[in-house]
Design brief:
It is a single chain. This protein is mainly beta. 5% of the residues lie in helices and 42% in strands. The chain has a four-stranded antiparallel β-sheet, with no helix packed on it. A four-stranded antiparallel β-sheet has the order 7-8-9-10, with no helix packed on it. A four-stranded antiparallel β-sheet has the order 11-12-13-14, with no helix packed on it.
Amino acid sequence: LFLDLDGGEVPSGTAWGGGPYQAYPYDRNGDYNTVSAAEAADICNIWLRVAEDFAPFDVESGDIILRVPGAIGDAAISPDGTLLAYQEAVGTNYGPLVIVDIGSGQEIARIADLCWVERDTAWGPDCQSYPATPFSGYTGDLEFTPDGRHLVGMLQIGAGEGRVIVAWELERGELVYWSELGEYVPPAFSPDGKLLAVAAWEDRIDIVDTATWNQVSSIPEFGFVRFVDNETVVLIFNGLALYGWEDGTMIKSGEQICDRMDYEVSPDGAILAISCAGEPRVAIHDMESLELIQEIHTGTEPLRGISFVDDTHLLVLPVPGTGLILT
């Protein structure tokens, strides 16, 4: 894995389009000829964040150190980079979740105790006898808790019927949490991993304690949700709004300038980035005031996903086949 941050001429005919043009070295202080301590620290942090996505590969030799046949749908890597979670295919259907040790390839856990039974429940005795009743739907947005002890996912129910958020304790492979049926809104962890925000049907956000998996609070509004810090969440839905999760009180509201495609809060909680649906544009909002402070135009192709590399840099994913952008 080679991250080219020292600039150079970009030839024509690349996936970026256009060219040739001169790319400048990574710089924070206007001096391209030296690397300050702050710039060196930034580069190390950029490497660490990007390297998380390449944990299954030997980046020195380029060799694949783990290959998983039969994987389907989403996957996730634990925070310490040692475990891989993925959904296994059963024929042409979505099957159980499997957790493997990346270093050895050994299976650590197999989770097959959840299926769709009826509209108002997401699990039951009929689901315990895998493979007679395997997973009945795609489980996406897989994410490990920060301590790596639990896996959280969003189980899609039927065709357009909704989803439930589910969590498993990995050591025992037990289902420890399931939400009520709700909208297709990914859950969100607080920075310390102690809370999980889950959107219900267009009327509220439930706050769940990840130590007990009990609901501890509720915000009486719906939206796409991210934690700003351990006390505050931001909701994105026909506008922006900050809420204190403990009492569900709105702190501030703001204007949303475009339909959301993806959305992320910077690690320091100071910035909200929203990629605009169908556009090559990212809106940057100040988290304290919710005011728009910058618009980043990334070219001509619409955007899909965004992710903060550190507090000041974004990794932007345009539509498939058009490359990656670090801004």
